[in-house]
């Protein structure tokens, strides 16, 4: 619902605020007073084209701000939350402030609840906020993209469509899995061969934890056996075997210090330390001797060690640096091969699952399509009856349910299966006998378009997403009894939706809940448009003016009072 519309510096409007009531709001005034400017301002704030011609002469910028109240369960709340736009709760509703600023140079800025946005984002919100029927301009009803939603709402088919959507989403998900599985299947054989070769090579190599260090040491012994034998044998001799060996000297020194300890007991521990060192060096000498006896050149073993180190280091270079890492990689290969073996039948399993889902979705989509065609006939008949009441009794309405063009996607019965089923829907109308039905947006007469939209909106009054319906020139080319019927029809729509109607007919204006008049005045060489809400007495005078023209007679006032009394 539109709570208030504030307009600044738009053409003839310097500044005005229009505060609407929830039900039937009517806007009247002399021709040229500026009623259409308010519609232009509302269109602008809903994402319409910004033009520098909208900016009032000598002003730098024009500004339009609209305050809406939207229900908490409205789709627009989901859109705003998805866009990260904050909404302030007010009771059971949210407040939404939309603002559009147009500079005299033509540039424009848009804001939603204080956050900057684009005109395209405003246009995306517009169908859920307002539907304008004005000289071939309707935010939603003339857009065929909305007609499927209207038909499903009329036929109460949202639940069936939801089931189709769920199935199509599930098919899309399993199709993605199937594509991935097929892609994996293509490379699986090659990958499996590589992994099998690696596993076989590792099993043949049979690495042992920590063996790389032992092999490096053994290779050193084998490569430099002669030098190692000489060095260790010489060490053993110098420590123990040679004349004047270190161990012998340490033994004599220990004895001398022990003898001296007879004079100073503190020397005895030192003597024992020296003797202990002699014993350890004696052991070391024996080990060196054994090492020297054991080490020998062995070219065959050296080749074996170097070959194993070569193979081991090749693996360690890629999957090391230690044999523990290599053993872990071997386990990974083994697991990957087992997974590949278990995944080999996944393509078949997914293919079968997709076929089952597709069969289910096809059944649901065909059933939904049949129900849509039945609902389309009822909707066309209902709208046709409304048009007859509104003075277009010879008009023919068609709700065209046709297959979605089968370009890509899932083909079904010569159509393309989408989340919405296999149908596209468009409202067509032939205003006069002998004419082919045409889309609503191609109706030549603005009055006929407005009445056609009014008829559709009356039938769909409880189903439309927009909180505000705007009718401009709905009374074009009608009068008398039809005008009163139009008024009743608009009032009926206003029971379910907020309505703003611009009219020149007293029969329509008299049935409104709130009556506003647009005036144009001149001061200091400048023309200014204003709008004000009428009191009951002012309303009688205004309706009398609409009945009698420039000169308001007592008879016109009496007729106006009677109209208001009956409404």
Q: What does the secondary structure layout of this molecule look like, with pairings?
A:
Elements: E1 2-10, E2 13-19, E3 24-29, H1 35-45, E4 61-71, H2 75-82, E5 88-90, E6 93-103, E7 108-112, E8 115-117, H3 119-129, E9 130-134, H4 144-154, H5 158-205, H6 211-223, H7 225-241, H8 246-260, H9 268-294, H10 299-319, H11 323-343, H12 346-389, E10 396-403, E11 410-412, E12 415-417, E13 423-430, E14 438-439, H13 446-459, E15 468-472, H14 480-493, E16 498-502, H15 506-509, E17 514-523, E18 526-533, H16 536-548, H17 554-566
Parallel strand pairs: 3-16, 3-17, 9-15, 15-16
Antiparallel strand pairs: 1-2, 1-4, 4-6, 5-6, 6-7, 7-8, 10-13, 11-12, 13-14, 17-18
Helix pairs in contact: 5-11, 5-12, 6-10, 7-9, 8-9, 10-11, 12-13, 13-14, 16-17
């Amino acid at each position: 619902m539109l709570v208030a519309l504030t307009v600044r510096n738009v053409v003839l409007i310097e500044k005005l605020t229009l505060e609407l009531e929830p039900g039937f709001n009517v806007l009247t005034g002399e021709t040229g007073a500026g009623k259409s400017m308010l519609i232009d301002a509302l269109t602008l704030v809903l994402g319409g084209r910004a033009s520098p011609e909208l900016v009032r002469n000598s002003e730098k910028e024009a500004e339009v701000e609209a305050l809406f109240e939207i229900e908490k369960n409205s789709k627009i709340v989901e859109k705003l939350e998805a866009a990260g736009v904050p909404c302030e709760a007010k009771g059971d509703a949210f407040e939404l402030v939309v603002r559009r600023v147009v500079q005299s140079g033509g540039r424009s800025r848009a804001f939603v609840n204080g956050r900057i946005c684009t005109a395209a984002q405003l246009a995306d919100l517009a169908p859920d906020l307002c539907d304008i029927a004005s000289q071939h301009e309707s935010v939603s009803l003339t857009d065929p993209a909305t007609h499927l939603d209207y038909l499903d709402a009329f036929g109460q088919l949202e639940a069936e469509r939801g089931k189709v959507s769920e199935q199509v989403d599930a098919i899309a998900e399993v199709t993605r899995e199937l594509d991935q599985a097929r892609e994996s299947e293509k490379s699986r054989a090659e990958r499996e061969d590589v992994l099998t070769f690696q596993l076989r090579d590792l099993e043949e190599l049979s690495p042992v934890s920590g063996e790389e260090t032992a092999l490096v040491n053994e290779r050193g012994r084998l490569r430099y056996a002669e030098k190692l034998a000489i060095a260790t044998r010489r060490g053993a001799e110098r420590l123990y075997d040679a004349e004047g060996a270190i161990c012998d000297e340490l033994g004599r020194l220990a004895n001398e210090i022990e003898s001296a300890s007879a004079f100073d007991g503190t020397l005895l521990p030192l003597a024992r330390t020296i003797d202990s060192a002699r014993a350890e060096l004696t052991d070391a000498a024996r080990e060196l001797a054994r090492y020297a006896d054991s080490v020998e050149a062995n070219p065959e073993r050296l080749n074996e060690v170097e070959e194993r180190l070569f193979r081991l280091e090749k693996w360690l270079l890629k999957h090391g640096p230690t044999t523990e890492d290599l053993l872990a990689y071997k386990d990974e290969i083994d697991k990957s091969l087992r997974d590949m073996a278990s995944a080999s039948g996944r393509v078949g399993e997914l293919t079968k699952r997709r076929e089952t889902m597709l069969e289910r979705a096809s059944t649901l989509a065909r059933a939904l399509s049949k129900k849509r065609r039945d609902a389309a006939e009822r909707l066309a008949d209902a709208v046709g009856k409304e048009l007859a009441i509104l003075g277009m009794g010879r008009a023919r309405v068609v709700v065209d349910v046709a297959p979605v063009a089968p370009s890509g996607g899932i083909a079904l019965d010569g159509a393309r299966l989408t989340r919405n089923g296999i149908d596209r829907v468009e409202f067509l109308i032939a205003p006069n006998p002998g004419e082919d039905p045409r889309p609503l947006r191609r109706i030549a007469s603005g009055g006929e378009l407005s009445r056609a939209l009014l008829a559709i909106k009356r039938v769909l009054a409880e189903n439309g997403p927009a909180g505000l319906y705007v009718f401009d020139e709905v009374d074009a080319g009608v009068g008398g009894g039809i005008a009163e019927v139009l008024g009743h029809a608009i009032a009926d729509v206003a029971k379910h939706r907020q309505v703003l109607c611009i009219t020149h007919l007293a029969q329509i204006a008299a049935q409104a809940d709130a009556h506003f008049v647009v005036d144009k005045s001149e001061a200091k060489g400048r023309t200014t448009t204003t709008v004000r809400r009428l009191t009951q007495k002012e309303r009688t005078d205004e309706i009398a003016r609409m009945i009698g023209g420039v000169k308001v007679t007592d008879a016109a006032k009496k007729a106006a009072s009677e109209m208001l009394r009956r409404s």
